[in-house]
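re: that chain from earlier
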Amino acid sequence: LVFFEGTYDTPGASHVGLYVGDGMMISAGDPIKYSNIHSSYWDKHLLGFGRIPK
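^ sequence. v structure.
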């Protein structure tokens, strides 16, 4: 999971993407997009990465 902040007027993580490899993620916005996490928009909002424990 890729966490972003500052994409909405809310404290902390405001958006989560699903990392799929090669710097790309699936972003469940409207519409759902296949996006590069290093684009100028996402790069400035990057908060961190995480995973769901097994």
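Helices lie at 40-45.
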